[in-house]
Design a protein that fits this description.
heterodimer; A: 332 residues; alpha/beta; BirA Bifunctional Protein, domain 2; 2 domains; 7-stranded mixed β-sheet; 3-stranded parallel β-sheet; elongated; B: 207 residues; D-Maltodextrin-Binding Protein, domain 2; 5-stranded mixed β-sheet; 7 helices
């Protein structure tokens, strides 16, 4: 992430970076201003972020992210809550075929630790896993003299999906830490089934999100209407601690608004805007203005788009109402 | 929903083995017809250039594809490699003229010119070694570049080494080894999980 941030020099010569995502700024806000609030905290934001992607020169550098953070609950119930909320939000937007890939940053990091790799080798392993290239990965790990159990575990991570991966990985490495984290994942899927979401989620332990701050369950939503993830999220229990030294568990997600617009379709959005009731109110004189104003406010409370037209311009109001297929109300 | 689509190479060394693989899996598409797609058993088989297949899959124009690992890397396609199909093995090597005093890539003088049809792989290979060379892209017949004075060395595929010998070239390093892979679009992999899993199993059993 640091490599893809826009950086500039401040007036005193220090390097400053523009925000490339919102979780770290929210974590800093929480650690400096909100730790005395009663937990858990539920925060949300809609914000623009800027970053560049080397591999795709045509990729936009500014994106809008809409996200939530649930801070102060270490339990799997918090992970289940944010995943359910994300699925509800996407369904409300009209995206019906959404699938969520779930991974676990803790399990993946533990496997990397068991393989005893250097930083550069870790990056290569991530490259193989993100392509699900188990052939290349096996060759590399064997070449480094890795334990056969660890190699088998990574192979399972590349080749298998669903909860069965956990048993394969455990069978291959038999590690207590992995076993404990695997139980978290199983509990998550059970909690999601209470909301009837079990068919929407699948486990992919090879899911790698770009950021190092994730510590636990991570996830990404997909739909057939868009060519990559619509956003993503996960648990980051150590991030707030890195600002204040006090451990504050947290999880959350962000959806990329630009991707959502593309997935839903510009025409579909325009159509939905058209379907919304729209009223143009024209007061014929200043005596009628007061009534027009309160009528507009009433309509807006009901969710209707209400527009006040310049006083006395009946012809203009008629023309506009016709063009926008809006209802015209005249106040005399 | 449209049928699952798979692209296989329309010519070249991966073409025949790809057809054989499909036919062993009970998905016989016959000899390449001129139409771009053939339907068989609910699957749409598309014939395309091996070098374009990573791009088709990356953008989801087809869900799956058979192509070389080298081409996936060269096109920097963000796709999954679900199966190593075991055929089409080759290695990509750095070669110099037989009489050249150069014995390893580290002997290449700074600024040497390297001709290749894999400019991205070649550039990142030399960068990774901290060597500064000029990579020039040629579409084919890379092995004649040193004789014509276009380049001091080449990066190209070699299976047996016969082409290199015929052109009086000597291998000095292996850049990578590659074979044919079954690649998959990352979104299709999730949204059509069951169909893809069953096709992968069918192909895995037939390779």
């Amino acid at each position: 992430m640091v490599q893809s941030m826009f950086k500039a020099q401040d007036d005193d010569g220090r390097l400053v970076a523009f925000r490339a995502e919102m979780t770290a700024p929210v974590a800093r806000l929480v650690s400096s201003k909100m730790l005395k609030e009663s937990m858990p905290l539920r925060l949300c934001y809609v914000s623009n972020v800027v970053r560049f992607k080397e591999r795709y020169p045509g990729y936009p550098r500014e994106l809008w992210q809409a996200g939530v953070e649930l801070i102060g609950n270490r339990g799997v119930d918090a992970d289940a809550e944010v995943i359910s909320l994300m699925l509800t939000a996407l369904s409300e937007l009209g995206l019906r075929d959404v699938k969520v890939d779930v991974g676990h940053a803790g399990i993946f990091k533990r496997l990397l630790a068991l393989a005893k790799l250097g930083n550069e080798e870790v990056e290569r392993v991530k490259g193989f896993v993100s392509m699900k290239d188990s052939t290349g990965l096996r060759r590399m790990l064997k070449g480094l003299g890795c334990d056969e159990g660890v190699v088998k575990a990574f192979e399972a991570v590349c080749e298998l999906r669903g909860l069965k991966v956990l048993d394969e990985v455990l069978g291959a490495v038999g590690d207590e830490e992995v076993a404990r984290l695997a139980e978290e994942v199983k509990l998550l899927f059970k909690l999601l089934s209470y909301n009837d979401l079990q068919d929407k989620v699948s486990l992919d332990v090879g899911l790698i999100r770009g950021l190092d701050y994730y510590t636990g369950i991570i996830f990404e939503p997909y739909t057939s209407a868009f060519g990559s993830a619509l956003g993503g999220g996960g648990r980051y229990d150590d991030l707030i601690a890195s600002f204040v030294g006090k451990e504050v568990p947290a999880t959350g997600f962000a959806l990329v608004v630009d991707h959502l617009v593309e997935a839903i379709g510009v025409e579909a959005i325009a159509q939905r805007m058209k379907e919304k009731k729209r009223v143009i109110i024209v007061p014929m004189n200043y005596e009628g203005y007061r009534e027009a104003l309160s009528r507009a406010q009433d309509l807006r409370r009901q969710g209707v788009i209400a527009e006040l037209h310049p006083v006395g311009d009946l012809e203009g109001a008629k023309a506009k109402a016709m063009k926008a297929s809006a209802i015209l109300e005249v106040v005399r | 929903m449209r049928p699952l689509r798979i692209a296989i190479p329309n010519k070249g060394r991966l073409h025949k083995p790809s057809l054989e693989l499909l036919s062993k899996a009970g998905l016989s598409v016959g000899e390449a017809s001129r139409s771009y797609a053939t339907k068989v058993d609910g699957l749409e088989v598309v014939l395309a250039r091996a070098a374009d297949i990573p791009i088709y899959v990356h953008f989801g124009a087809v869900d799956l594809g058979v192509t070389g690992h080298d081409l996936v890397l060269e096109k920097e396609a963000d796709v999954y490699e679900l199966l190593d199909l075991g055929f089409g093995w080759c290695k990509m090597v750095v070669a110099v003229p037989e009489e050249s005093p150069v014995n390893s890539v580290y002997d290449l003088p700074q600024g040497s010119r390297v001709a290749t049809s894999f400019p991205r792989i070649a550039s990142s290979y030399f960068e990774g070694l901290g060597l500064s060379v000029e990579v020039v892209e040629v579409e084919g017949a890379v092995e004649i570049a040193p004789r014509l004075g276009l380049a001091d060395a080449i990066v190209d595929l070699a299976t047996t080494g016969a082409t290199l010998r015929e052109n009086r070239l000597r291998e000095i390093a292996v850049v990578l080894e590659a074979s044919a892979r079954l690649i998959c679009n990352k979104v299709s992999f999730r949204t059509r999980e069951r169909e893809i899993a069953s096709l992968v199993e069918r192909l895995r059993a037939s390779k």
